[in-house]
């Protein structure tokens, strides 16, 4: 029964009856078409002209309607033959169990058999000659209209299924097959076969009941691979409705099954005619199915059930075996871990890889902070998950597990972070070291076997942490001892070198000598391998080596070092120039910014380097780069010592310049025009909207500078207001206002004035007028005049050099006289006399008195008077005596 239904009872019956229906329809057509033409004078048949249409005679043998001429020409004309044919057709029609009928072109019954009359509840006589509407009106109008359209549009038989109300009040389920036939030119009638399908309907209902009672999922597909039947269980497992599946092609409904065992096994069953049984996983549904497929002539019957739970249990059993084998292997590896970090990493990896606890982490106790920071966690573990669960990791259940040393398991947790899906937590103590924690989602729970396996893992992790802690302490003690010795030895070597360099700096007479001797001394220190000293050219941003020492093997010839934005300007030397601070590269191998020089450096054994700026105040003399043959050579202590060395070299370089300036009998005078006044000092002057002329510059012992100006076309109040707003000016003091406004200006920080003074320059004039400034400076000829020009260009950008003059002085020059005077005066005496002179103390009438000069210097008036009198005595003695008076 099931095999019959699997491809659809309707389909089976249709196929079994289709051939007989065609035979019956053709027989009925033959019975109508083989009659000879009707003769109006023939006494065996009559035509009732008053009737609604042609009728069968009293015997019911044949119709009396006229027949087409072409058919009549082919039919027998002998009356005996005709009678025999009529009798033969009548016997055939009456012996058929199915109802047969014929309609003429006006849809009137011209032939019916007894089975059709019984089926409709009419007698044969009640139907013949009457319109078909006496029967069809009992059916739905839509069904009849659809039948007519199908006959008009097609050229073959049309099948109709309906419930037929009969004349005697019954309702009979029928199946009718109707076909057209030609009655005459332009006239088309119809013939049909009608059968009672009550038994078939009952069979369908019984089969449906049987199949619905089957506990397994079941569906049937026909030979076109379309669903002919699907029970509710199957629809539920396939997550589709029965209505959606019926009539659907199986591979269209489930395209993901193409190419899987479902397709290959079903096709094998159909091809071989043998039943198949198999198990297969269907990924779209995430389920395993056990399938049995039984082929038949009309399709395939498939029984299947969801065996995912059984497969999962089997997998769990197999997984447990593999899990404990793998866990044993991981436990043995834990014994080889030498650090606490390694133990923690291996523990969480084992929890995730072996136990499937992919959200696990270890918190180790930190004695310094008294907290339990995370030491290792799996990638799937949310960061700061304890805080999202408990608000404070130091007071929650993880901390309680550590304090009490007892395992804890929590469920029903609610995370404050919506993105953290956590429902359960299991915490395992690791002795004095910390806690192992694993998490479950809100939809999961821990299995007992997982917790037992995790407990075993943690017991071994605790033992490994104990051993690692002992070994780590031993290593730390040994490393500290070795590091301390190495560091002390290195610092001692550097200090010895610095003492040597200090002696060199004191005795050096030129920059070249300082640079060469510094490189040679440092290169002799182990582990320093190579040292070079470079100058920065602001015009090209090139860093040019002017001195080097050590085992470089042509390193400087193979590399290009700049201080610009290109890749060759990103190294330590460029950073030291740009920032004025040491730049360390403790791993040449790993530093991306060292790419342009890495190959050349590594091939020569360089592993780390440091670049130290050499400068004095704002004056940069270059950069000192030191290379070591070991990584991480330049730690904080070494860098600090080398930074002080760079400052010492800068101070020595400045002292050499000052010495050269004092000893020089020739000088060069420059006059510059500055169109853009962006320096703070000039901005203050220009903002006062007047004309300013520099009268003198005095540098105090604390490096603060007093500038003495004469201003025209502006009052002191305006100057004072702009000074208050200036970030550079500390204060201004009015000295006199008789011939212009004479005032003193003290700057609070380094300016370009102090920078030029450091280079041995002497300011002759500074004039500020109408948004522009003119600066005249004189420098000794031995000083790098181009460096002075670059310095001004760097500070002010666009600079116009108005003039350059070389000056000769006599044998007893002003410079020599000045050196002699300064050699006799103390620094304090020089400061007081220069300030008093610049303030107009020595003019007549005096512009300032002793009390006002004392106020400028923050000293008492007697101190000013004493220093001025002593300076006068030294000066007059130099002029008038052969020797200095005490």
UniProtKB/TrEMBL annotation:
Pfam families: BAT, GAF_2, HTH_10, PAS_4. Keywords: Coiled coil, Transcription, Transcription regulation. Residues 158-209 form the PAC domain. The keyword Lipid biosynthesis does not apply. SUPFAM superfamilies: GAF domain-like, PYP-like sensor domain (PAS domain). Residues 85-153, 203-273 form the PAS domain. This is Bacterio-opsin activator domain-containing protein. Residues 34-84 are annotated as: Disordered.
């Amino acid at each position: 029964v099931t095999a019959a239904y699997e491809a659809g009872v309707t389909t089976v019956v249709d196929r079994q009856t289709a051939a007989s229906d065609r035979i019956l329809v053709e027989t009925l057509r033959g019975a109508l078409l083989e009659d000879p033409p009707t003769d109006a004078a023939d006494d065996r048949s009559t035509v009732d002209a008053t009737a609604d249409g042609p009728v069968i005679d009293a015997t019911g043998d044949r119709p009396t309607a006229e027949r087409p001429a072409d058919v009549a020409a082919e039919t027998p004309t002998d009356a005996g033959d005709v009678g025999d044919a009529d009798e033969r057709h009548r016997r055939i029609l009456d012996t058929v169990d199915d109802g047969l009928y014929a309609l003429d072109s006006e849809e009137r019954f011209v032939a019916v058999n007894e089975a059709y009359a019984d089926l409709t509840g009419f007698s044969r006589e009640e139907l013949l000659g009457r319109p078909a509407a006496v029967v069809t009106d009992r059916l739905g109008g839509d069904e009849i209209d659809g039948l007519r359209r199908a006959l008009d549009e097609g050229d073959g038989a049309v099948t109709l299924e309906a419930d037929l109300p009969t004349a005697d009040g019954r309702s009979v389920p029928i199946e009718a097959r109707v076909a057209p036939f030609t009655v005459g030119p332009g006239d088309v009638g119809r013939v049909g076969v009608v059968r009672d399908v009550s038994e078939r309907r009952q069979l369908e209902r019984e089969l449906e009941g049987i199949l619905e009672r089957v506990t397994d999922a079941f569906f049937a597909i026909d030979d076109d691979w379309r669903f002919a039947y699907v029970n509710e269980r199957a629809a539920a497992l396939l997550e589709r409705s029965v209505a959606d599946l019926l009539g659907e092609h199986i591979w269209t409904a489930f395209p993901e099954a193409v190419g899987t065992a479902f397709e290959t096994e079903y096709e094998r069953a159909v091809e071989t005619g043998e039943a198949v049984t198999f198990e297969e996983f269907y990924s779209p549904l995430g389920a395993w199915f056990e399938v049995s497929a039984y082929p038949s002539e009309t399709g395939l019957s498939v029984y299947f059930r969801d065996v995912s739970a059984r497969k999962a249990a089997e997998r769990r059993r197999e997984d447990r075996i593999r899990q404990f084998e793998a866990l044993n292997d991981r436990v043995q590896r834990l014994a080889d871990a030498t650090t606490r970090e390694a133990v923690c990493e291996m523990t969480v990896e084992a929890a995730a890889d072996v136990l499937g606890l992919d959200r696990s982490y270890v918190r180790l106790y930190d004695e310094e902070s008294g907290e339990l920071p995370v030491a290792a966690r799996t990638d799937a573990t949310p960061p700061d998950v304890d805080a999202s669960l408990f608000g404070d990791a130091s007071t929650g259940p993880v901390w309680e597990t550590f304090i009490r040393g007892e395992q804890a398991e929590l469920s029903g947790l609610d995370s404050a972070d919506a993105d953290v899906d956590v429902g359960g937590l299991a915490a395992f103590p690791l002795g004095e070291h910390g806690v192992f924690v694993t998490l479950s989602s809100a939809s999961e729970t821990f299995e007992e076997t997982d917790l037992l396996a995790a407990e075993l893992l943690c017991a071994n992790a605790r033992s490994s942490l104990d051993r690692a802690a002992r070994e780590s302490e031993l290593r730390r003690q040994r490393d500290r001892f070795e590091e301390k010795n190495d560091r002390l030895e290195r610092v001692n070597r550097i200090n010895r070198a610095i003492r040597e360099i200090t002696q060199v700096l004191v005795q050096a007479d030129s920059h070249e000598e300082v640079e060469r001797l510094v490189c040679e001394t440092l290169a002799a220190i182990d582990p320093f391998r190579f040292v070079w000293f470079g100058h920065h050219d602001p015009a090209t941003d090139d860093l040019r080596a002017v001195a080097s020492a050590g085992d470089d093997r042509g390193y400087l010839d193979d590399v290009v070092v700049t201080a610009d934005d290109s890749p060759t300007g990103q190294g330590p030397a460029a950073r030291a120039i740009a920032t004025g601070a040491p730049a360390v590269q403790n791993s040449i191998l790993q530093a991306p910014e060292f790419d342009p020089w890495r190959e050349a450096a590594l091939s020569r054994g360089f592993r780390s380097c440091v670049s130290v700026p050499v400068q004095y105040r704002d004056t940069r003399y270059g950069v000192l780069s030191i290379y070591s043959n070991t990584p991480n050579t330049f730690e904080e202590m070494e860098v600090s010592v080398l930074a002080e060395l760079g400052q010492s070299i800068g101070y020595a370089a400045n002292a050499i310049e000052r010495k050269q300036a004092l000893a020089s009998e020739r000088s060069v005078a420059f006059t510059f025009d500055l169109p853009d006044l962006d320096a703070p000092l000039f901005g203050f002057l220009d903002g006062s909207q007047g004309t300013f002329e520099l009268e003198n510059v005095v540098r105090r012992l604390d490096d603060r500078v007093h500038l003495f100006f004469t201003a025209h076309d502006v009052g002191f109040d305006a100057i004072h207001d702009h000074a208050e707003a200036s970030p550079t000016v500390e204060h201004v003091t009015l000295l006199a206002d008789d011939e212009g406004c004479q005032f003193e200006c003290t700057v609070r920080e380094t300016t370009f004035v102090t920078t030029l003074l450091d280079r041995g320059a002497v300011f002759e004039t500074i004039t500020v007028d109408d948004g522009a400034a003119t600066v005249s400076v004189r420098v000794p000829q031995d000083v790098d005049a181009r460096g002075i020009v670059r310095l001004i260009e760097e500070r002010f950008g666009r600079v116009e050099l108005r003039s350059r003059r070389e000056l000769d002085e006599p044998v007893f020059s002003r410079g020599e006289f000045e050196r002699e005077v300064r050699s006799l005066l103390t620094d304090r005496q020089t400061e007081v006399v220069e300030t008093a002179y610049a303030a107009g103390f020595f003019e007549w009438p005096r512009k300032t008195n002793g009390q006002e000069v004392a106020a400028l210097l923050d000293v008492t008036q007697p101190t000013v008077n004493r220093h001025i009198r002593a300076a006068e005595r030294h000066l007059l003695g130099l002029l008038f005596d052969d020797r200095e008076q005490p």
